[in-house]
Request: fold
Amino acid sequence: MDFTWFHRLGSPPYIYRLSERLAPWFGWSAAVLIASGLYGGLLLAPPDYQQGEGFRIIYVHAPSAWLSLMVYSCMATAAAVGLIWRMKVAHAVAASCAGVGAAFTAVSLITGMLWGKPMWGTYWVWDPRLTAQLILLFLFFGYMALRASYDDTSRADRLSAWLAVIGMVNVPIVRFSVEWWNSLHQSPSVMKLARASMPASMLVPLLLMLAGFTVFFLAFLSVRLRAEVLRREKHSAWVRETVANA
Amino acid sequence: MPDSMSAFFAMGGYAQYVWPSYVVALGAIALTSWSARSVLRAALAEARRAAVDGSEDA
Reply:
């Protein structure tokens, strides 16, 4: 098998230039997807027969919650690759994920509380899903605090990577909590596409928002990762050439 | 489609929950994009300084 692509991905200048080329494509696609998702979700989708207009919180809540789990999984996978193959770029990817992951975990919790108040009568319950999602937020914070406590980047990389990998056990707990335990949280609306639980006019905007948030993460990463790579490689020749030409 | 602008903003009585949710989510997108760009600008400036110092040493 040909693994040259894997070696190329491990090369900082290659990753830097690739991210630079892809950033505007990701950015504009995310903007278009999110704008059309907002239009469909706020204006075209009919009100829910039980929750009325209040159900529209789903169009920001579900994508944020999905993103929080996806970003954590990316962070843990990149951290594991960094540990196993000692690939510096992989550690840089993991380090780039933490802040945005924490932000969208917080958004999923806040929008969930704003949805919970009118529908459940309370902002917060110590429900399995809510509790596991709160733990996810603390895992992101712990990861960032651990990194911040080391001046030596390669030590910070290795130790924080272990935390990210071990914390991965929480991801399936969040994902399947509503099926494993008796939860107040409703079960996912999208994952059971076979027996669609929503009409297309409700579902399509949700899929657009899910795709939009995902592509937004790629746009974020293609900017944030460049900063991370530059910091780590600032004394190398390719960075000197890159900043001289810019 | 909502019947009127005021009906749209009222969100069937859920305005106080729906609109803050959208503000928080879209605000997070704006804030994280801004932060990524400013971190990149800072890293570029730092790399330029390192490049200048390096060329003086040489």
Residues 50 and 161 of chain A are 44 Å apart (CA to CA). The mean pLDDT of chain A is 93.
